[in-house]
Write a structure and sequence with these properties.
By secondary structure, the chain is α/β, with parallel strands linked by helices. The chain has 2 helices and 6 strands, in the order E-H-E-E-E-E-H-E.
């Protein structure tokens, strides 16, 4: 299983969008790493996340690869993963923090 952590702001991702994101992230993990995603969905409570003194609209998506990834491949995978998120949430790329890490040694 590929560990995937999603941190979102309360009230910003409706249940149907969450379901689509989970399915799409799982399909992405299968394509990229040959394994399904184990998705940990965490919601930041209202009034707990801020950017520039305003309620945050940002999300964090962090996925742990099952093999070392070259920088060019990582860039392509991050682009695909973040665009997947933007397409479902209708947020901008400026509101998405994407991480794909190499396995821990």
């Amino acid at each position: 299983m590929i560990t995937c952590n999603c941190i979102v702001q309360a009230g910003q991702v409706p249940a149907e969008t969450e379901a689509a994101l989970r399915a799409n992230l799982n399909a992405f993990a299968e394509r990229a790493f040959g394994e399904p995603a184990d998705i940990n969905w965490r919601v930041v409570p209202e009034q707990s996340g801020f950017t520039a003194a305003k309620p945050s609209t940002s999300s964090i998506i962090s996925m742990a690869a099952n093999r070392p990834i070259s920088q060019p491949e990582r860039a392509a995978l991050l682009k695909e993963m973040c665009e997947l998120w933007v397409g479902e949430t209708k947020r901008t790329l400026d509101e998405v923090v994407g991480v794909i890490s190499d396995p821990q040694s």
